Amino acid sequence: MSKSRPVRPPRYRPRLLTLRDGRQVTLRAITEADGAEIVQAFGRLSPAARYSRFMQHKKSLDLAVLERGLRPVPGQDFVFVATVPADDGIDIVGAARYLRAGAGSGALPGEPAGERCEFAITLVDDWCGSGLAPQLMMCLMRRARRDGYRTMEGLVMADNQPMLKLARRLGFEVVPMADDQTLVRVVRALAPRSRRAAQAVSRRRPAP
Ligand SMILES: CC(C)(COP(=O)(O)OP(=O)(O)OC[C@H]1O[C@@H](n2cnc3c(N)ncnc32)[C@H](O)[C@@H]1OP(=O)(O)O)[C@@H](O)C(=O)NCCC(=O)NCCS
After folding, report:
1. Residue 194 falls within a domain, yes or no?
2. 124 CB within 6 A, ligand 1
């Protein structure tokens, strides 16, 4: 029987964020124990929010997607959750994730593999407009930069005005998709890497 390697937990110390409307949330890395709360949060999303996030009408979360999201691979992907106290313990009111972008997904000529990541963000409806989304995105960009990524991108529906406004405000460029007018790609360079982050990237690259 093969021995499974112990999984390193993501290193991120939970922090309390105060939003511009005065409400507070705890921002932390997702854990395997968050499954039930993620399912509950999905249940609280409006059909429009689900469509904007998943680009299809979804009645429930795919189990495989949920399982993958609960177990990010350290250094390759990361999921933040924003939580508030609730009768059953906590509610998750927002989540943001980066995932290593696959080969060929908009990479620039000469761009080394493994330096581009793709984001996704979702807030439950009551928390839209609270100022949580920009804070989540900024934490995600910082985290991705620390993990060695140089570019962050996202696929957004062309009529998703809240996400496009947020992306532009955060310095993302909006790039039309040549083959699909219903979608746009938003792209942003992350600030230059530290030497430590560069080493993290080179460790992730397969040996030549
Ligand atoms: C995208 C999302 C995270 C943005 O969160 P948010 O809290 O609405 O973001 P913000 O409040 O910071 O900014 C949104 C801006 O869009 C504006 N806006 C909202 N609805 C709008 C609409 N229908 N048309 C034009 N602008 C709109 C808001 O007024 C705000 O601008 P302002 O700050 O100048 O008032 C949130 O809407 C969401 O979870 N959507 C569903 C999932 C999704 O679409 N994810 C993105 C794809 S990964």
Report:
1. no
2. no
> For the chain, what is the domain count?
1
100 in a structural domain: yes
Q: How far is the CA of 51 from the centre of ligand 1 (A)?
A: 14
Contact between residue 125 and residue 101 where contact means Cβ atoms under 8 Å apart: no
Q: Is residue 59 part of a domain?
A: yes
For the entire predicted model, the pTM comes to 0.87
Alpha carbon distance 52, 128 (integer Å): 14
Q: In terms of Cα–Cα distance, which of 115, 206, 127, 181 is closest to 153? A: 115
Range of the domain at 29: 15-150
Instruction: Render pLDDT for 58-117 as a digit per residue (tens, 0 to 9).
Output: 999 999 999 999 999 988 899 999 999 999 999 999 999 999 997 555 666 666 668 999
Shortest-distance Cα residue to atom 1 of ligand 1: 163
38 within ligand 1 shell (Cβ under 6 A)? no
Answer whether residue 191 is part of any domain: no
